[in-house]
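Thread: FE2/S2 (inorganic) cluster complex, take 2
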Amino acid sequence: MAAKWTYSDKVKDHFMNPRNIMREDNEADFDGIGQTGNIKCGDEMIVYIKVDPKTLTITDCQWRTYGCASAIASTSMLSEMVKGMTLDQAYTIKAKDILAALDGLPDNKVHCSVLGDKALRAAIDDYYRKNGMEDRITTTKAKIVCECMQVTDEDIEHAVLEGVRSFHELQEMTKIATSCGECREEAQSVMSGYIQKHFGL
Ligand code: FES
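Output below.
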């Protein structure tokens, strides 16, 4: 059991030396700002992005948080990952991608890793709104099934189309229902619905 509370070297590094924290009050210099909080964790996160309007590429990503060590390490890693990405690429980053880059988090802290990517998508949406590109906003089109891990019905459908057939496999791929667990019943129902829809099983 003790191993579940062990932080990887990468988590320790990003917590002790967090990258890209916003240290100045220069919000106006940024092109998109996104804020989110997770009431179950008690954390709050704000992500700021600068965007090259010609290539729609993220040129800078900074952040601030009232968050725990896991939220800090996760967002620090995220802020490094997204620099140089297009907005489309950054939009698809999920908690599981950040977890992989950090070599994992203790099970009870996994839900903290969703704060950064959720705030990032809000910042990208903010950029789209400010620049007349509302049609590119997709976060409101998908229904969130798991609030803690920010897993949507589209994510579940994608997992089913990728070959997932059991709830355990779905959790392995998406981390759904790995925090409070309140979404478990609905998640199983949504997964079964897509298996039936696509494969008639
Ligand atoms: S809503 Fe909490 S784990 Fe899914």
